Each structure stands twice: as structure tokens, then as C-alpha cells.
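Take one protein record:
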Amino acid sequence: MFKKYSDVIAACFFMLLGVVILALSSQLEIKDNYGGAALVPRICAVVIMLCAAKELYSGVRGLRSAATAEDDNEEKETPSDYKKVILTFVSIVLYALLFEKIGFLLATFLYIVSQAALLAPNGTKRNYALYVVVAVVFSVLIYFVFTRVFWIMLPTGIFR
């Protein structure tokens, strides 16, 4: 029963999270023309709420279609699904621990490569060259956006 409503429950949770972040970000003082400290939390809150709204729509639509058609082929969760969740959690913790020590660029690069390899569909050949290129591009792009556009310094780590 919980699995049937899991998309709707998760969407409601994230919608509430987005509202809370938006409300709390309004308490931050705005000190410049670029939005100040409240800009990034507000953008994140709006993106979270938009994604939650899309998921809520999909979840409700899925409930309606499930109510009209028999669902004999219910998806079973495999042990590898749980393994991926645990490994994702471990990689997030490692990212947080290594972020200051080795720096944003290297930690983000390693995290993106590991997540791309981990989340690749089972039974498909993993394209590590593509993962490396995507990780380098996104790590550098995010670094320059934060340091040159938002003027937020990120840890340099071993690249000092």
C-alpha cells in the first residue's frame, strides 16, 4: 500500500521542504543588487517545488491509471536497488568529508564520476570516458559560476 502512494507522499514532502526553504530564505538580509545571501536558497526552493509539483502530477496520474487497470506486474525491488541507495549515501558522505580536504573541483569530479557509474542501468556497458568528460565540464562550470558570478569562494584543497 505504501509503495502505491510513495510518489505522492514524496512529492508532498518535497513541496513542503521547498516552502520551508523559501520561508526561511526570506529571513536572510539582502545586501546587494544580485540577491545577496537569499538568492541561491530561493532558486533552490523554487526548483524543488517545481520538481515536486511535476512528481505530484505524475503520481496522481499514476494512481488514476492504476485504479482503472489491473496491476498484476507490480515492480519488485531487487537487492541491487538497495545496494545502489546505500552506495549513493556512502558517496555523499565521502563527498562531504573530502570537500574541504581535497577541494571542490576534485571532490566534485570524483563524486560525479562515481554517481554516473553507480546509476548506469544494469546490464549496459559503462562509458567511463563520457563520465570523466561530463564530470570535468560540470565541476569546472559550477566552480566558475560560484567564484566568478556569485563571488562565493569554494575550497581549493590540494590546488592551493
Notes: The chain is about 70% helix and 0% strand.
